[in-house]
Amino acid sequence: MRFRASPHDREIWRLAVPAFGALVAEPLFLLSDSAIIGHLGTAQLGGLGVAGQILSTLVYLCVFLAYGTTAGVARQVGAGDMRAALRQGIDGMWLAVALGVVLIVAGWALVPWMVDLFGASPGVAPYAETYLRVSLFGIPGMLVVLAGTGVLRGLQDTRTPLLVSVGGFGVNLLLNVVFVLGFGWGVAGSAWGTVIAQTGSAAVYAAVVLRAAREHGAGVRPDVAGLRTAATAGVGLLLRTAALRIVLVVGTSVAARMGDPEIAAYQVGFQVWTLLAFALDAIAIAGQAITGRFLGASDLAGTRAVTRRMVWWGVVCGVVFGIAILAVRPWLPALFTADPQVRDLLAGSLLLVALFQPVAGVVFVLDGILIGAGDGFYLAWTTALATLAFLPAALGAYRADAGLTGLWLAIGLWMCVRMLTLGWRARGRAWMVTGAVRR
Prior knowledge:
Blueprint: H1 9-37, H2 42-60, H3 64-78, H4 82-117, H5 125-135, H6 139-154, H7 159-182, H8 186-216, H9 224-233, H10 235-258, H11 260-296, H12 300-328, H13 340-355, H14 357-372, H15 376-399, H16 403-427
Helix pairs in contact: 1-2, 1-7, 1-8, 1-11, 2-5, 2-10, 2-11, 3-4, 3-6, 3-11, 4-5, 4-6, 4-8, 4-9, 5-8, 6-8, 7-8, 10-11, 10-15, 10-16, 11-12, 11-13, 11-14, 12-13, 12-14, 13-16, 14-16, 15-16
């Protein structure tokens, strides 16, 4: 690892810096909700935590709409076929609409069951159910945002997603203040603000992609074969995301069963973790776009060189983020709650969040690079392996009454297993498959 400049730095940061802003906007949606709802009470904040995890699980099981689309579109760009790149992206957006409608219909009747599954207490459950029922109507917009973001990233454009995300965050924050503090709608008002903001962002993405399709002569109507290809291409990423979400679901469930102060503190601590994870993932987004393009152009040397450089930057950023958490730790809990017990629990959690940031830097960057290469099935089974290491550790922490410290240590174990398996893969050559389409 050397501190001298690399010829790839300019391109990495040209894509990563705007991607950073776009990525952190998503956890900022929930962080802003948390800051507002937290002043209504601990039960309301806990309800937001449970509902937020359920909603994130439903949406991010479909994250292949972004990641798979980025990789596929970038390969076509590398091969010089812009029309095929846009057509592939549009198929992904239509698939997002279809999946969104299915999730609304299927999810509505299951809301009480899902909230109970997460172990919400009787005081927290009504707020979680209210937030989740309203938020279901925003899922189609959220999925279209994922797919539209993937299209633009594949086209090597991360600036437009940044602008859309900043606009969406601003609208969400304004509506939450008006609906919750102005109209007194409570958690329902917070959810409606997010629904409106996400749906508006989806409309912007649709307009941008359709305009590009007209410029390059790409068809915009739903295509059955294209929808099937978009769905099957994401199977590996779906399995990988399912294994990842099991960790997040179990973590929230364990924290909820520890008590209302624990789930409230865990919810805020986890949103801080997510914010930093997305920030680190900005380098991975650059990796998805650049790796896909280099492999589409059959440039193996460039692929290897840019991989090494992005891992280096992942470690550096992880160290910086860890130091930053330690610096703000004495004051951060007070921004979210006045409950002294929740503040103490959150302060302890932030120590471990800071400790694991360098590991997270390696994991998220390598994850993104392998996604860009289309190596979804390897990611699926290795994420499952790491999850199998996490589950007994988390349950053991709960039974041993180790509190949130034990739970966060289990998450750290999960990250370390992922780092080892991803690093082993990146050192080899099996993942570097060239061509406009990975076969």
